[in-house]
């Protein structure tokens, strides 16, 4: 059945999968699976020591931002330009406790949990595999 875009079910994208090369695979897997809590859906091993794990990160969205928006988000979350071209953002239920847990597991806190103008609590971290991540908690009508 066609939708508003004119696409039918067989034409639609069904999953966004971000593939990240992790030089220290075990460290990255432990951080994202065991500390951040992304459940492992599948994992495979291949010749030559090849390994991959597919982790469930919940609902995926693709956020496209122009350079001015990227700069504004950096300013709000960190106070200076720091983000690479690709940054992962994870919505969590308790931004402060998740941030503390990730820092305790070795992530570098680039900026503490901060209430944004769009009313979410965002923290910026440098994570394993060379990834920069934002942990965010939607605050709804309550601030703080």
TrEMBL record:
InterPro entries: Glyas_Bleomycin-R_OHBP_Dase, Glyoxalase_6, VOC_core. It holds the Pfam family Glyoxalase_6. Residues 14-138 form the VOC domain. This is VOC family protein.
């Amino acid at each position: 059945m066609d939708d508003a875009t004119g696409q039918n079910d067989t034409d639609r994208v069904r999953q966004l999968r971000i593939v990240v090369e992790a030089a220290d695979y075990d460290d990255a897997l432990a951080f994202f699976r065991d500390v951040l809590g992304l459940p492992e859906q599948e994992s495979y091993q291949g010749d030559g020591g090849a390994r991959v794990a597919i982790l469930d990160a919940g609902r995926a969205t693709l956020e496209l931002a122009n350079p001015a928006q990227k700069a504004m988000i950096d300013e709000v979350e960190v106070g200076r330009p720091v983000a690479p071209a690709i940054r992962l953002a994870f919505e969590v239920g308790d931004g402060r406790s998740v941030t503390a847990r990730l820092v305790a597991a070795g992530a570098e806190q680039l900026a503490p949990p901060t209430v944004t103008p769009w009313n979410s609590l965002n923290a910026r971290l440098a994570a394993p595999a060379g990834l920069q991540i934002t942990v965010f908690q939607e605050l709804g009508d309550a601030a703080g």
